[in-house]
Design brief:
single chain; alpha/beta; Enolase-like, domain 1; TIM Barrel; 2 domains; eight-stranded parallel sheet; three-stranded antiparallel sheet; 11 helices; 14 strands; about 30% helix; about 25% strand
């Protein structure tokens, strides 16, 4: 029996405005893939990302181009060879994982070895703004144990000082989104260390980060835009201390699992992150993140409206997905 496939573009409003060094957005634009077989349905969600030259139309077209092969029964291994890493492959791959779980009756958590998955402490993201406004965001969320702070401008030291003073009990991740330069990275790293920062994501542009091999790392540095698949990892040894694994970058859970395991072999710390999407996008990542050093799966917390049913968040704890949602 041939599979039935649907591809849908959806939009979910963000609570306020989400701003990083590359711009602002007021809604999460996602594409959802649904694959049906023998009365069971699997779903996957992806978030096209402009930084990687992805658009809603382009990702939609890439998924549609695979329609015949999906209908004919392509499996996840063949999918890796048939499509490049990125959002389009992620939506299909995660839908196939979900479908396999529904057809077999075996939870995806068991299939990937995440037996008895636990609730995880996720970071909560503060948007880039002027220092005073960011201090207000931090103060409002100072009870959260882990904050992720978007920086990457000309006034980052003031932002770091403002946020750490406003949330003195929180561990803090800084995410520069490639916004620092060779001229300020050493000074900014030292300042971050003085203020007890736990981790810094992608301070320099991907491919222009060679200086990281030659300078001190007083705060661990995590690759984000510089790492997509496991094949990228060996070139990052000595440059970065950790890697941020996102399903939309790796092109699905299948490659993300390989990336995570290889990163551990090479001695990298593991962070599992996300784009701004719904609980459907976060669900497989919660399973991937079991045992990770840092978890940043707060996408639904930034939305004004999530899917139903969604993931259960209690403060900064996110529980594994119910099978009605995914897996």
């Amino acid at each position: 029996m041939a599979r039935v496939i649907s591809v849908e573009a959806e939009r979910f409003p963000i609570a306020g405005t989400f701003t990083i060094s590359r711009g602002s957005k007021t809604e999460a634009e996602v594409i959802t893939v649904t694959i049906g077989e023998n009365g069971h349905v699997g779903r996957g969600e992806c978030v096209p990302y402009k930084r990687y030259s992805e658009t809603m139309d382009g990702v939609h077209a890439a998924i549609e181009a695979m329609r015949e092969r999906i209908a004919s029964g392509i499996d996840r291994t063949a999918l890796l060879a048939a499509m490049p890493a990125g959002a389009a492959r992620n939506a299909i791959d995660c839908a196939l994982w979900d479908l396999e779980a529904k057809l077999s009756g075996r939870p995806a958590a068991d299939a990937i070895g995440a037996v008895s998955p636990k609730a995880l402490e996720t970071a909560y993201t503060l948007s880039l703004d002027e220092p005073e406004a960011m201090a207000g965001q931090a103060r409002a969320n100072a009870s959260r144990p882990l904050l992720k702070v978007k920086i990457g401008g000309d006034n980052d030291m003031a932002r770091i000082r403002a946020v750490t003073q406003a949330a003195p009990q929180s561990r803090i991740i800084l995410d520069a989104n490639e916004g620092w330069t060779d001229d300020n990275v050493v000074e900014n790293l030292a300042f971050a260390a003085e203020h007890g920062i736990a981790l810094i994501e992608q301070p320099l542009p991907a491919g222009r980060d060679g200086i990281l091999r030659a300078i001190a790392h007083p705060v661990p540095i995590c690759a984000d835009e510089s790492v997509h698949e496991a094949k990228n990892l060996e070139a990052l040894v000595g440059l970065y201390d950790a890697v941020n694994i996102k399903l939309d970058k790796s092109g699905g859970l299948t490659e993300a699992l390989t990336l995570r395991d290889r990163a551990r072999e090479l001695g990298f710390g593991i962070m599992v992150g996300c784009m701004v999407g719904t609980s459907l996008a976060m669900a497989p990542a919660v399973l991937l993140a079991q045992g990770a050093d840092f978890v940043d799966l707060d996408g639904p917390l930034l939305l004004a409206r999530d899917r139903e049913p969604g993931l259960v968040y209690q403060g900064s704890l996110v529980s594994p997905p119910d099978r009605a949602l995914w897996g």
